[in-house]
Each structure stands twice: as structure tokens, then as C-alpha cells.
Amino acid sequence: MKRNHYGIGIDFGTTNSVVSFYNTFLKKSNPLTNKETNLPHPSVVWYKADGSVIVGLEAKRRIMDFSTAEGNAFVSSVKRRLGKQESMDIMGKKLALHEVAAEIFKFLRMDAESRSPEYKVNEAIVTIPIYFDGRARRELRKAADIAGIFIKNFVHEPFAAIVGYCHREESGLQIKNMEKQIILVFDWGGGTLDITLVEVLDNELVELSTGSIPDRAGDHFDDILAKSCRSKFLDHLRISQEGYSIPPGDMGRLYEECERAKISLSSKTEERVEVARICKYKNQYQDMNVSVTRNDFNDLINNDINDAINEVLKTLENANVTVREVDQVLLIGGSSRIPLVRQELREMFGHRIAEVKNANTIIAEGAAIIDAEGLQPVLARPLNVELSDETSFEVFGSGFVTNSNVCRKKIHFFCTDNRDGEAKLVLKELAGRIAFTRRLTKEVLSIPVSSQLPQPYEHERVTVEFALDDDMVLHVSGKGATQSKGSSCQIYDLCFGLRLEREKDEGES
Amino acid sequence: MTSDKKINEKLFNSNKEKSKHLKKQKPEFQEFLLTLKTFIATQNKGDNIPKINNYIKKGFKGNIEPRHVDEILRELLGWKDLPRLAMRMAVEASIGRPMALVEKLIVPIRDELARRISFPIARVRNVFDSKMKSDLEDWIAKKSSEGALDASWVRDSLTCIMRENITEEEFAIIHSIVDSCCSRKIKTPRKKEVVQPKKYTNYIKQIGTLFTSGQFKPSKFFLALDICKPFSDELKMKKIKLDDSNAELQIKNGELLELRKSLKSVNQELEEAHIGIEKLQQQVRLKEQALLDERERFRMLDEHWEKEVVRESQGKIFELKKYFEHEVREAKLSLDRESPNVQMALNRILHMEEYLNRIGENA
User: Fold this and answer.
1) Alpha-carbon gap, residue A475 to A445, rounded angstroms
2) C-alpha angle with apex A124: A120 to A128, nearest 5 degrees?
3) Is A228 within a domain?
4) Which is more confident, B118 or A272?
5) Same-domain pairing of A412 and A364
6) Which of A34, B177, B256, B346 is deepest in the core (most CB within 10 A)?
7) Residues A360 and A412 in one domain
């Protein structure tokens, strides 16, 4: 066994990012969290006035102090904007979003290599949310390239979470024995709630359906509790809500107190939110002293929790899966530890709920395992071409490894109706093995053909080429036999699964 | 007249002496060899063996050197009538004083004949000893069983046995052979003569005459074992011993076969054991490697867990620090002013106490 064989996974998150190594000799993961906090590095980039760039916890800490200071710029949640072909104005300089993202990759690489010099972060598996399309993937690859990291493959975050969880001893699960099991991944972190229903089918992880609630997660709950306390406090002082604003520094203290109270409320029924000298009113410092009960807090977040539960039900419904049919529910992210959330989910799924410890790093750990074991993403559904006469041809079957060497095909068709000077191809993802999930239903490629042929129904030969690139973007180009120019399109949102066994190399028995 | 007579007598005598001198004069070696070659090549009406024998006896001028002997032998050894000449030379060597050249030639000729008939060649040259009897008897019996006994064989064997000063044992053998094939033609010596070997010169001469002649054919052929009886008895005893030995040998061979079988199976077992040892050694090597790997794994795991503990501790320290920083800061802000909020500060202390009580609860 090779002692130095390892895999590298990178969870490039909206709020936090982390690199993890998986040593195959030890069968142990080593997530490189922040040294001080043992938490993933905040995905915050601080462009300083002197031209230097700070990333991570240090940047996050300084947002309050320097965000308004001239010559400083802070960028957070850059991932959310990737793939939209946007750019940012940083202190008068136009930067592409992937250049900002590259700073995070650079920081992750430098931090990992300085702390574990035995590992080299020059290639890795990078996780992406299910909704991340080909454009976003492409931009993410560019960012990694700038940092000197080659992305071997993209893997969906819920798949990485499942693989990471199953490799943990505490799970007692073996992914090989989970054929036909349905797993619900409930990932409610600091930024978004992501729900993914996954099935283990023919030794592949395939997504059945997804649900998502953006901008409503951990930070949101602290925010609404702080706002409620502020409101109560101002009512107590008989000050109008609009007429007074708490300085940012003191608001930070209030958030810290709210976070403490929120944690305390998971074990107590009532807690006091007390912040000394939060403001000066009538020339006197005022102390905030507000009582918050668990019911109050539950009322505050109840709507969000209900929305989350409804999203779960909707996700199940979209896949035509009942609550009973779900075999495992993985709770990931800090917000999933809120008692009310656990209570609601426990009522639905009972003992099938698995709370993942150190969930902050589980996705990166899973990605590193996927890298170490050589697992590869595969096409989840067959891709077909339909002609105007409703004949249909399969281009790629399901289970194809997403490798540009493998997924390359040239097909010849005959245009059956050239009267409009166009041969129209309809590209479709078929339901295949997984019937109830989002899929590419229609993408039309119009290929110019000659309309000058003597008879209206003469056939013109059309050649169409298909190629799937490393960013899992399908390139389709077609050309008529009589034409000098053809047409092409790119399909960014094909559906991918994850094969759970290693693709054997040539010559390997 | 008298003087004439005397002169004539003198002349006659001088001529006689001259011719006598001429007659006795030996040729040069080359001349001798040439004449010998001519004799060998010439097919006379009569037998030319005595003539050649006499010529060889006469010899040539000068010393006999080994090369002379070799050249003569080269001529003789290819000659078909060599055995008869050899017999003649052997007879003359045994009954009289042989000429120097004959003495030098008879030894290699005997060797050659002995080689031809597979005579126990060591015995041709050595002194006749007691073992000779059994060797010769064995040899004769062997030849007899092979059907190889004929006139030439009898002649050659006698040539090989005959030598100067024939011993009693040699004579017994010679007599036995001769009696077995030509008793009618040779007068057996009286007992007295047998006792005194010098007296059986006549008998040897008769053998010489008979066997030198090309006409001889043996009339009967079996060993007259009366004379060889002691040897025959000994032979019988030896045969019995031989049979016993053969039987014993057979048993021993059987045992040897068994032992060989055992040896083979033992060897096979040994080979299997070697293979087993090799396999076990291989397993030991693999186990040792696995042990080394495991040790390395444990070492690395230790390192991993140490790092993990440090990481976890760092996280916990951060949590504690963050919590207590907040509480202490709020407590200080509650107290460090003109009208301190003691209740709020006390609450902070209670929070911290509560927090401290919770530490280790889930350990």
C-alpha cells in the first residue's frame, strides 16, 4: 500500500471554504480548518489599500472596522455570482469574478501547503451545488487555474457529503450496501438551505430532486432574534423603531449576545438578552435587558422552519417519493441543529435522521475521498436527439463517465424538410432510470441547410458532433453538407451522478 | 700335385669360408625390412613361416633400436599369418634362448594378440600367480559361452600363455587347452616330464609344429578339467559363492531399491518441505511487511490524532475565549461606570458559572 497516496477535496463554499486531505494508508481525513477557530475559512476577500489581499477569518473580522474605510474593499459570497459573466469594481479596478474567487483558492492552497508540506495542492476535486451550471463551473475552473490548482472533476456537494459521512466510523454505513436506498441531504448552513434527494442506483449516486431556500439560514436567525430584541428594547424606552439606530460595533455585541441566547434556548425555556451600554439615550447609557422565551424564538423562526419543512415535502413530491421511502436523512450545517428544526424533522423521519458531527468539513472530506478512490461523475440520464419527423437517436447513454475522451460522438442525419433552409434538432435528456427529476427537456439547434434544392423534400446530409468537456458542458455543432458554415450550441445543465466504483485504467485487471 | 691339391684345398676352403662368411653376414636394417616385406607379400607354394622366423632370428646389422622394432611391427601386425608366426616365436622363446630381435618382438605381438582375443592382458606380462587360474577359467568359460572358441583362438591363447621357463600351473593350463582340442595329435608327456618342466620341451615343440601349420582344425573342444580340477573346484566354489553373492546382491538390490524409493519420497517430502518453507518465508516476509506497515500506520495515526486533538483543542479554546471575552466585556461595561449595573454583571458571572458547569458534561 502506498503510504503517501492521498486525495484532495475542496469545498468552495458561499460562506466558508475548506480543503481536506484523505490519506488512503491511514483511511483518515484531515480537514485543514482555521488554526484558531477549527472552523472552515470564511470565504471573504479583503483588498487592502496597500494592494495586498487578505482572505479568511482575518478579512471577516475586519469587515466591521474597514468596510467603510477608504481604499479597502471586501468581497463575500462570490460563489453565488459565478457564471453570470459579471465583473466587480474593486477600488476603481475592474476584476472578473473568477479573479476574486482565485484569491480564495490561492489562500486555501497556501494555508494547506504551509501547514502540511507533505501534501501538494496542485490538483483536486472541487464540490459544487447542484444548481451550479456549466458556465459557473467553467468560471470556477478558471479561478482554480489562476491559483495553480487543476480541477480533476466537479462533484455535487450532497454526493460528497454522503460519501464523506459513509466513510466516518460513527455512521456505521457502507455505501456499497446501500443499493436502492434513498437519502435526503438537508444542508442548512450559514447561507442557504439546500435539500437534495439522492438515490443509490446501479452503484451510482443520482439526484432525484432538489429544493432550495436562499438567504435564509443561520445568520438569518441571529438577525431576526437581534431585530426582535432591538424592537423590544426600543419599545421599552419608548423610542420609535425608525428614529434610532444602534452603532455597528454595538450591533456586533448584540449579535454575539443573541447567538449566546439562541444556543442557551436549546436547553432552557427562557433566556435574557443583556447588552450593557448599548446606546446613549437622554445623555445616559442604556442597557438592553430583554427576556426571550423558547416559544418566542420558535415563533420568530417558525415561518422559516415551516418553509423548510414544506420545501422538504415539495422535494419529495417532485421525485414522487414518500416520507416512508426515505432511508436516511443527513443533517448538515449549523442551522440544522436548531431544536425546532430537529424536532420537526424527527417527527417526519424518526430514527432515520443522522446528525453529522463536524458537518462544516464533511463535504470537503467527501471530495477528498472521491479523489483518493478515483470515483467519477457520470451522465445521469441518456441524451437523445429528435428530428422533426419525430425520429429519435440516442447520443450518450446514462452512466457515461464525464470524460472528453469518452463522451465524443459524430452522428449523421438527413434533413427531411429543407423548405425553411434549416435542419432543426431537438436535444433531450430522457428520463432513463430516474424518472422524477428535473431534466433538460428541450434544446433546439438550428443548422442551416440549402433550401434551393430542386425538389422540396430532397434530403441534405447533416453532420452533428457532440463533445462533453471537463466542465461537464456539452458542445453540439452541426453542419449541412452543402453549407460552408454550420451552427453550434452549448448545453450547461445536464444531469450528473457519481459512480461509486473506480473506473479501471487500461491494462488494469 | 700335393701343392696343387693344397692350393685347391686352400682356395676351396677360402671360398667356403667366404661363402660361410657371406651366409652369416647380417643385412642392413633397410635391406632387412625390405626383404621381410617381400617375404610377407610373397605367396609361396609352401609355408613361409619357418623362413620368415629364421630371417627374423638372423636379424640385421647394428643395434636394435625401438624405431626398428616399431617399423618391423608395423609390417607384421597387419599380416594375416602373424598369429602362426607368433606361435612359432613363442614356442622358440619358451624352449630355447630366443634371439634378441625375437625377444623384443614377441612382447608387443603377444599384447596385440591378447587384445584381439580379449585375453586378460595383465596376465600376459605378469608372473603367473594363483589368481591367474580363476581369471583364465573365467575368461575361457566366458569365451566358450559366447561360442568364440576356434583354432585361431586356441593358437592365440597358447601364444599368450607360453613364455620362458613355463611354470607348472602354466603347463597345466596349456595342457588342458591342448588336450581339449587335439589330444590325438599330440603325445602327452609322461608324468616325469610334467614334474620336471624342462623335460616337456618336446611337448611344446609338438604344439608349435601343430599350431604353426595353417591346416590345423580343432577336433574337439572342451576343457579337460582333470588337470584344471583344482581350479574347477575353486571355480565351482566361487560360482556358489557368486550365486550366494548374487542372491545377496539381489536382496541388497531390493533393499537398495526400497531405500531409493524411500530416498525419493524423502526427497519429495524434503522438496515439499522446502516449498512449504519458501511459502512460510514468503508469508513471514509479507507479515513482516504488514507489521512494518502497521507500525508506520500507528505512528502516522498517532501523529494524526495528535494533530486532531490540537485542532479540536484550538476550536474549543476559541469557543471558550469567544464566550468569556463576551461575558467579561459585558460585565466590565456593566460595572465600569458611575452607576454600575450590578445585577447585569452578576448575571454575566452566573452565565459563566453555568457555562463552566457544562464543560465536561458530554466528555
Assistant:
1) 11
2) 145
3) yes
4) A272
5) no
6) B177
7) no
A36 and A101 fall within a common domain: yes
Q: Is residue A79 part of a domain?
A: yes
Looking at the structure, do residues A14 and A154 belong to the same domain, yes or no? Answer: yes
Sequence-distant (6+) residues with CB within 8 A of B276 are none
Q: Does A39 reach chain B within 8 Å, measured CB to CB?
A: yes
Report the residue of chain B nearest A25, measured CA to CA. Answer: B297
Q: Could you tell me whether strands A93-96 and A87-90 are parallel, antiparallel, or unpaired per DSSP bridges?
A: antiparallel
d(CA A257, CA A274): 7
Query: Which secondary-structure segment (H or E) carries B266?
Result: helix B225-335
The domain boundary residue, chosen from A339, A373, A407: A373
Interatomic CA distance for residues A388 and A372, integer angstroms: 46
C-alpha cell at A387: 428530428
Instruction: State whether A280 and A395 are in the same domain.
Output: no
Residue numbers of A between 219 and 278 with CB closer than 8 Å to B: 253, 256-257, 260, 272, 274-277
Q: What residues make up the domain containing A284?
A: 218-298
- Residue carrying C-alpha cell 452578576: B346
**Shared domain check, A368 and A280:** no
Boundary (domain end) residue, out of A373, A406, A425: A373
d(CA B13, CA B21): 12
For residue A269, the tally of other CB atoms under 10 A from its CB is 8
Q: Give B220's pLDDT tier (boundaries 50, 70, 90).
A: very low
Q: Where are the domains of chain B?
A: 2-223, 238-358
Judgement on whether residues A409 and A463 belong to the same structural domain of the protein: yes
First to last CA, chain A: 17
Q: Is the residue at A18 inside a domain?
A: yes
Grade residue B190 by pLDDT with cuts at 50, 70 and 90.
low
Q: Cβ–Cβ of A276/B307 closer than 8 Å?
A: no
| pLDDT tens column, A137-165 | 999 999 999 999 999 999 999 999 999 99
Identify the band that residue B363 occupies on the pLDDT scale cut at 50, 70 and 90: very low
Which chain B residues have a beta carbon less than 8 Å from that of A257?
A: 326, 330
For A15-19, A69-73, A252-256, B164-168, which range has the lowest pLDDT when averaged over its residues? B164-168
pTM of the model: 0.67
DSSP A389: T
**Cell 426515505 belongs to residue:** A326
- How many interchain CB pairs under 8 A, A with B? 65
For residue B245, what pLDDT band results from cuts at 50, 70 and 90?
confident
Q: How far apart are CA A487 and CA A492, in angstroms?
A: 17
Same domain assignment for residues A398 and A489: yes
DSSP state of B285: H
What is the domain-level CATH number for residue A33? 3.30.420.40
Domain count across chain A: 3
**Least-confidence region, from A139-148, B92-101, B242-251, B285-294:** B92-101
Residue A354 CA to residue B241 CA, distance in Å, equals 99
Provide the terminal-to-terminal Cα distance of chain B, rounded to the nearest Å: 174
Residue B316: count of CB within 10 angstroms of its CB: 12
Report CA-CA distances (Å) from A128 to A133, A140, A194, A214, A486. 9, 9, 12, 15, 33
Residue A195 lies in a domain: no
